[in-house]
Design goal:
The protein is an alpha+beta fold and about 270 residues long. The chain has two domains: about 80 residues; about 120 residues, Cytidine Deaminase, domain 2 (3-Layer(aba) Sandwich). Helices cover about 55% and strands about 15% of the residues. Strands 2-1-3-4-5 form a five-stranded mixed sheet, sandwiched between helices. It is elongated, with a radius of gyration of 33 Å.
Amino acid sequence: MFKSVYQVATFRQTDAVVQRQVRTARDASRIFVRFSHRPILASNSIIKKDSTYPHKPREKLLSQGPSSLSEIELLALFLRTGTPGESASEMALRLIQHFGSLGKLLHADYQAFKEFKGIGVSKWAQLRACLEIARRSYIEELEQRNNLQSIGLVKDFLINTIGHKPYEVFTCLFLDPGNQLICAKELFRGTVDCATVHVREVLKECLDLGCSNLIVAHNHPSGELKPSADDLELTAVLAQALSFVQIDLLDHLIVSKNGAISLHEQGFI
């Protein structure tokens, strides 16, 4: 039985509509599967990666205090977020491994940070700001004390301010007659293994500030705390020069990231 031309056209049109509906439904199903499948994999991946750190640092800090946090947790709390495919905790671990320690990370310059993927100038600036806040808090604590009888406090202050520097610096703590801190100043900066100290400039600063006593310090980037012959000679020359203007050199400390020694305690002053 033959169909009329009209009937053939109608059936063909109907077949085309059905085929389009089938293709559309099939494509929609594929799109749904494709897009709904990715979040599930990503979610499982995040859970698996974060399983090493079952407690969120912020909640742990609130319940147990900041001292309960590891270095990785403290840094993750600061970072807040990671990067796609990497949690804040994983990035914190990668940062510490990359720089070698938390202290080296905090004191790294921006050029070193540029080599690390995932951290920009904003985070680097925030880290340096945190370090400066800690440094100033030490200065404030020193200034608010009646005197500087605690050599331990002075050592802590110097370790945290110059102990991690990759080059030598010479710092002075200017004191009044009651050994109260007037101010702390970094007077000279050198290279990785030496710094030139001008005794005349030290005397000028002491007279300008009207100090009566002085504590000086310099760092050894190598980590070696043993005083060199030059260190002992500088101490003797500086003490003699200060005595001419009735200023006492109370101590000369040698500092590194690992600790500090007092030449007064060693018997050299």
